[in-house]
Write the structure tokens for this entry.
Amino acid sequence: MAHLTHHVEQHRSSIRGIEAMTLVSNHHFPRHSHDQFAIGVIAFGAQRSWSGVGQVEASAGDVIMANPGEIHDGLPIDGKVRGWRMIYFEPALVTREVEEEIVSGIEVVRPVARDRLLAQNFAHLFASLIAPEPDTLALEESLIRSLVCVLRRHGARRPSYDNGPSASIAKIIQRLDSAPNAPISLAELASLSGTSRFQLLRGFTREMGITPHAYLVQRRVCVARHLLAAGETPAQAAITAGFADQSHLTRAFVRYLGITPARYRAAVA
């Protein structure tokens, strides 16, 4: 079994609504999603990911991308360490920055791309974001250039006919999204959807790619992330988000986001 290597740095970003991370790891990230747009570049090594278009692989120089709410994972190929940098954008910020250039309802359609221009734009933006004394004009130019580049070259208008999950699964998602901090049982969810517990579990996993419990934990991590960014302590965020205690939050936070709540809070609050 390969030795676990996991080093992550959550950088201080000079723009509210944007986060930047550097990771060197052979950690296997389970299926999860973010409530942000995610764009990154593999520096070395390679990984295999599950995505909406099937299994994809990314190696050094490749750009990796994900839409808000898009389920994906990350597995190091052959267990070897890979290094990459990520930038996460709040959807409202993306809309605000590119609304004059890109019509609304755009989503990224390629989870992996070999795109030298986008990789260069990403590198310039990343460096500007984490600079101790950023040049405001240069940073704004780099941000607009990067966002327009990714959306024009790898985006498409979101289909208006996209029906989303089935009616029964939609009820479950609505319940989990509306009150992720409230306890819930599989029997209660099954009753809400009008199915048996096994039918619910099988149907939810088939449509969403993860189990109801995994979805709920991710929603709680998302709630905690926003609370930490607002300055709450990990202990406060854990209870408010619905975790039993801080240790449960820490395990889930590291599992899905790769960093401890305390280090995340220190960088972004």
User: Anything to note?
Assistant: The chain has two domains: 6-157, 167-268.
